[in-house]
């Protein structure tokens, strides 16, 4: 009887509590959604597993065939950003010059890379992209599967300049040579008498460039070019003029000491005198109006003497060079701004 009573009690309790455990429509939808997500996740894991197995099999086959996979990635050296459309050329170091490259295509848009199965060996690589300096030739050994090579390209700075006559502003046909600060030549060309606009690719990792220009019936031109600083162009002075300004000659502030950065200008003057052994000159110094008349006069004379002394130590005869300090007496522009005062601080070469 007790057992029967217990059974009846359990059934009654289950009947009364059943509504409490019944799922609402929202709960049923949530449960079904969770079930579908679990199924979708399981399918995703299965696909990833199959993909990994396929990649493993492909890798095993590449190794068996003796053609491990090589990746090449391209980046901007300054920003670290990926560089799609970088043209990659790869060739076996032992290939003949006319042999077709192993790789000759651009990097993709997604990963900025190219990839290729290649036999193990020694290869060379070059990368090029518009607006960037072409990389030096990179040599590497390709041995293991999924080797990778990273190339970094440096952005180029392009400037344009003109070659003109200082008196008429007309184009001049001249021979142009541009060198890096270490005297390595980076450009040699000739302007013509019709189109004088030339372009120069500059690397802002280089402290400065020097530019020399020579032309018949003109004095040699020499100047310094720096990235992100204005360059006025090549202005050729005709030989019939009586004087010219020696550009880019620098002195310590308020002193006669010539700074090392003036070496290109001093070399220009030395070459000028060396090419004309019968020519005598007068070095005329000018200052701005900062300081007293007397101190500026003494300063201009002392600076001229230093330039003269530099020429003598290089082998130019002393009797060929006169000096004259003009102090602040002959400004070419009003001394009303730092830019104008800088223009008035100059060394002029007068031909005698």
Can you describe what's shown?
The structure is a single chain. By secondary structure, the chain is α+β, with helices and mostly antiparallel strands. It folds into three domains: 64-153, Sandwich (Immunoglobulin-like), CATH 2.60.40; 156-240, Immunoglobulin-like (Sandwich), CATH 2.60.40; 242-352, 2-Layer Sandwich (60s Ribosomal Protein L30, Chain: A). 29% of the residues lie in helices and 29% in strands. It has five helices and 19 strands. It has helices at 2-21, 25-65, 263-275, 293-313, 338-344, and strands spanning 69-76, 87-92, 103-106, 113-117, 121-128, 138-142, 147-153, 157-161, 163-165, 175-180, 185-190, 198-202, 209-214, 221-225, 234-236, 243-245, 281-286, 321-325, 346-351. The strands form six sheets. It has a four-stranded antiparallel sheet, with no helix packed on it. A four-stranded antiparallel sheet has the order 11-10-13-14, covered by helices on one side. The protein is elongated and about 140 Å long. The mean pLDDT is 85.
How is this structure best summarized?
The chain is of the alpha+beta class. The chain has helices at 2-21, 25-65, 263-275, 293-313, 338-344; strands at 69-76, 87-92, 103-106, 113-117, 121-128, 138-142, 147-153, 157-161, 163-165, 175-180, 185-190, 198-202, 209-214, 221-225, 234-236, 243-245, 281-286, 321-325, 346-351. The model has no long low-confidence stretch (mean pLDDT 85).
Question: Topology, pairings included?
Answer:
Layout: H1 2-21, H2 25-65, E1 69-76, E2 87-92, E3 103-106, E4 113-117, E5 121-128, E6 138-142, E7 147-153, E8 157-161, E9 163-165, E10 175-180, E11 185-190, E12 198-202, E13 209-214, E14 221-225, E15 234-236, E16 243-245, H3 263-275, E17 281-286, H4 293-313, E18 321-325, H5 338-344, E19 346-351
């Amino acid at each position: 009887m007790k057992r029967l009573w217990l059974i009846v009690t359990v059934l009654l309790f289950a009947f009364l509590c059943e509504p409490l455990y019944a799922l609402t429509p929202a709960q049923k939808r949530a449960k079904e959604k969770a079930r579908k997500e679990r199924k979708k996740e399981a399918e995703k894991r299965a696909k990833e597993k199959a993909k990994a197995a396929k990649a493993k099999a492909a890798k095993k086959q590449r190794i068996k065939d003796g053609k491990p996979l090589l990746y090449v990635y391209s980046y901007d050296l300054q920003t670290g950003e990926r560089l799609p459309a970088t043209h990659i050329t790869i060739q076996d170091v032992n290939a003949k010059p006319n042999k077709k490259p192993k790789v000759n295509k651009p990097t993709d848009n997604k990963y900025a890379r190219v990839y290729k199965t290649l036999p193990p060996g020694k290869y060379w690589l070059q990368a090029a992209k518009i607006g960037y300096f072409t990389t030096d030739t990179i040599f590497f050994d390709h041995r293991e599967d999924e080797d990778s090579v990273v190339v970094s390209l440096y952005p180029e700075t392009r400037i344009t300049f003109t070659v003109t006559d200082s008196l008429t502003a007309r184009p001049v046909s001249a021979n142009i040579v541009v060198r890096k600060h270490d005297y390595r030549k980076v450009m040699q060309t000739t302007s013509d008498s019709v189109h004088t606009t030339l372009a120069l690719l500059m690397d802002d990792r280089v402290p400065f460039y020097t530019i020399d220009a020579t032309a018949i019936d003109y004095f040699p031109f020499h100047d310094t070019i720096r990235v992100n600083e204005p360059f006025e162009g090549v202005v050729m002075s005709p030989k019939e003029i009586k004087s010219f300004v020696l550009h880019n000659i620098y002195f310590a502030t308020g002193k006669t000491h010539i700074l090392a950065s003036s070496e290109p200008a001093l070399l220009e003057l030395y070459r000028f005198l060396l090419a004309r052994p019968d020519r005598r000159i007068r070095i005329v110094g000018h200052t701005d109006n900062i300081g007293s008349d007397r101190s500026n006069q003494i300063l201009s004379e002392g600076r001229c003497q230093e330039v003269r002394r530099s020429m003598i130590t290089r082998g130019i005869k002393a009797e060929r060079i006169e000096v004259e300090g003009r102090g602040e007496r002959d400004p070419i522009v009003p001394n009303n701004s730092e830019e104008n005062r800088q223009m008035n601080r100059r060394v002029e070469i007068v031909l005698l």
